[in-house]
Amino acid sequence: MIRNERQYRIISSQRKHLADALDELVGSTLTTVEDGTDIDQAAWKSRIARDSLASEIASLDEELQEYELLQRGVMHSLTVSSVRDLPDALVRARIASGLTQRDLAERLGLKEQQIQKYEANNYATASLRRIQEVMDALDVRLAGGIDLPRTATPLSQLKTRLRQLGFDRQMIDRRLMRDSNGITGAAGVAQIIQRLSRLLDVPMAVLTSDSEPAPALATAGWFKTSRSAAQPALEAYSRYAEGLAKIVVRATEGLQILPRPGTAREIREGIETALDEFDVDDAEPAMSSALLLKATLRYVNGLGIPVIALRDPGAFHGACFFHDGRPVIVLKQTTDSPARWLADLLHELDHIRSETGSGLRTWIELGEISAWNEAPEEQHANDFAADILFSGRAEPVVNQCLRAANGSVQRLKSVVRDVAMQAEVPPDILANYLAYRLGEQRINWWGTASTFQESASSWRIVTDELIPLLDIGSLDAVDREILIDALAS
Hints:
Elements: H1 5-28, H2 41-72, H3 86-96, H4 101-108, H5 112-120, H6 128-138, H7 154-164, H8 169-176, H9 186-200, H10 204-208, E1 221-225, H11 231-251, H12 264-275, H13 289-302, E2 307-310, E3 316-323, E4 326-332, H14 338-354, H15 376-389, H16 394-404, H17 412-423, H18 427-440, H19 446-450, H20 458-466, H21 477-487
Parallel strand pairs: 2-4
Antiparallel strand pairs: 1-3, 3-4
Helix pairs in contact: 1-2, 2-3, 4-5, 12-13, 12-15, 13-14, 13-20, 14-15, 16-17
């Protein structure tokens, strides 16, 4: 959701870039695949790429059009069907009222940064009293009712069962049963159940039962979760991600698995080699984090480790799965910041690198991947990522920042870009690492770090690097459609 003019300009630029990429792709590909017979590998990959680009463009168009309509005052009412919809409705109401985040802050007697934090976190830290104060400041009223239960249908019963398994309504409607609208016949419902049974590795009898207790959807992976992740929802989404990982393993069976990397220095050297494949502007020594993300993905994929990108809210931010001895990394962020995606990727790579082959256990951890965590394994993974990102010079660069700021946290923001340029490190990566280090001292600097983030379609970058690795023709029709749906939306 677009919250201010700066985000509007960034999204507009992204939309143009994606549209140009889609035009180029369509112009270079004439082959289409109508069914699953005589599958043309290049055509399937082209379809995934086209559908993925078109889906992302459509999503950006919705955001841009909504922001424009709100600014013009065309929208006079907003639909709030549940409490979950209220935070976004408050942001929309502010925009429709012609107020900036600073304007709203002044009405409430707060700092602008506090409103930015509220909106960025969907008012998760705001009390009911504060939310009411925001509504009063915006002069909006909430009127509604509660829908009573309706007569159950096969589809509604299936949705109820999925909620019992831990999936929320948004995940069910947007991902698991997105194409279920209009399906009423038994055959159509059975097809959906078969697909979900395959994806979630749950017997069809369990999905259709209305009497048996819902089983726990435990998985065999290593996870890095959000602090607010609820256990049933985490386990359910993790099972979904693990199902995708298994499909990707089947689609990359021909991918050669190289020995796992050793030291951070060896990995950095491998990434530097991958960087040579890209055009780097010599006039900009501190390369962009987006370029560094591309090179790191190229290196990791070259090890025989595919990386899947998801962007659903909640649950975990990163996960490692092993299937038939083959590793898969799943990254999931709602942010576009390539620096955050890159840190998550290297964090998970350390878990894979450290795996001994003695068997995996489900690893549930609290906190953002890049946030301070006292668990030794997490400290090691974060330090490992920093060693790679700073070429082993993380501590000297931090000390350089502190000297330039005369030891003042308040002055750190003013020195980040200059120090980053001298250290040949992207500013957003340096800002995030400073926030991580300050977190050790219980100082929250993430709000300031967010102002340095480079905007790039990170989900698109990860997906574009995965597609060439896939042998779509090796999958059956069910797996093929599951994977295409996941990569295209």
